[in-house]
Description:
By secondary structure, the protein is an alpha/beta fold. The protein has two domains: 1-373, no CATH class; 376-508. The chain is 36% helix and 22% strand. It contains 17 helices and 20 strands. The strands form four sheets. It has an eleven-stranded mixed sheet with strand order 6-3-7-8-9-10-11-15-14-13-12. The protein has a four-stranded mixed sheet with strand order 2-1-5-4. It has a three-stranded mixed sheet with strand order 18-19-20. A hairpin with a 2-residue loop joins strand 18 (407-414) and strand 19. The N and C termini lie far apart (55 Å). Residues 1-15 have low confidence and may be disordered. Keywords: Coiled coil. InterPro entries: GH3, GH3_C, GH3_M.
Amino acid sequence: MPLLGSIIKKVIDVSGTLNQNSNPVKEQEEVLMHLLKTAQDTAFGKYYGFKELLATEEPVAAFQETVPYFDYHQMQERWWGQTQKGLPDITWPGAPEYFALSSGTTGKTSKRIPVTDEMIEAIRQAGIKQVSALANFELPADFFEKEIMMLGSSTNLQQNQGHLEGEISGISASNIPFWFKGYYKPGEEIAQIDDWDERVKHIAENAKNWDIGALSGIPSWMELMLKEVIKYHGVNNIHEVWPNLQVYTSGGVAFEPYEKSFNALLGKPITVIDTYLASEGFLAFQNRPETTAMKLVTDNGVYFEFVPFKPDYINADGSLCQDAPVLRLDQVEENVDYVLLISTVSGAWRYLIGDTIAFTDVSKAEIKITGRTKFFLNVVGSQLSVNKMNQAIQELEKQFSIKLPEFTVSAVKENDEFYHVWHLGVNEKGIIENEKLAQALDENLKAANKNYRVARSKALKGIKVHTIPLDLFYEWSGANKKKGGQVKMEKVMDEEKYTAFRDFVKSHL
């Protein structure tokens, strides 16, 4: 009997029971009060009068009335640029040791987001909460003695102006507790390899030396890694290499579009648990098996606000209009798309993280990620969110029995008429004709979105579909120095990016 696993499982069971009862609304109020009190003597806190806000009868309302919304560029230009130069006490007490590099999916240059000691501790505590939640998933005791493959970015952090820089997964992995290092794979030496392909090569070569019970990472890059391991060892599925693999914690993007292609790499079903770890913090994780939704971490260094996701509130560059209404956790409704704002122990304030979410259960503070503010196609009023696109693609997979884990779309004007041009990534030989796919996709979108249906009867002429090898999506990311780690593929491209992508595809076919 796995003695150590049994002990760990009992501890997790007890911890999970203790964490069942919480009051997310009250926890959020306490988090905001802590943030305001801690930062009141920073340059930001003095500028916006945090001491005065705290003295009002309703500090939450006063905070919302006084502090504007910020996207990264506004935060960087007005505040974080000073922090990066080494000036202390700008938006959070002291000076951060780390900056998380995040080019996101649309940026041309890396963003540098401060990561304070308090944030590293908050991420660690959120990780412990997620481990405690495993008590709800009825995993066997021996699972807790297996190793965990954490496929993030390189832990080889770079020095810059007195601080260290890297992607958040690399920063987190470089700060794992000493007791966890025995479970962590691919291990410190391989994790420090900067080149993604070289790192995956070493993982494949060492794969049979490890007893992997769980995987963690973004679905697209996890699939690529698993394919390389399977190919290197000449087997049919990953369970022939890691027979005890039982859990996959996905993160950062919706798992559903990848579900079909991911499951094709397995020899038996595994438990998939969603997480929401962004460059700005560990925001949510799946807390129970009855749902694929994730519970917001409401008591741990992040204060959440929600703006209804409507075209009138979104500027052309994806930022928020300052007069857009905002809601607290106790004011939101289920099944409504919201733009997510966060204030954090890293000194982000009313910060537009760029994601849209919807609540599946308000009382439990459970959400699902529905898209990105910049991945919103509203040319001629079509109002297509990534969530609606994903649903239409999944329906396409069912209709034609194919796997379409990656896609991108752009609105293109041809002869004074607008088209939505889709590129679908496929592996299968003899794929269905593009015209048939376009017709079916068009019908799926009409059924899923009233605004799209209206647009198609007016200014939106139609859909064009191009099927391309799936690997071209990943090579495109590599060509833009964004391969592996936290990188997510652009689901919607503007005209400039689409032209570059189209030319890239043509040159590689």
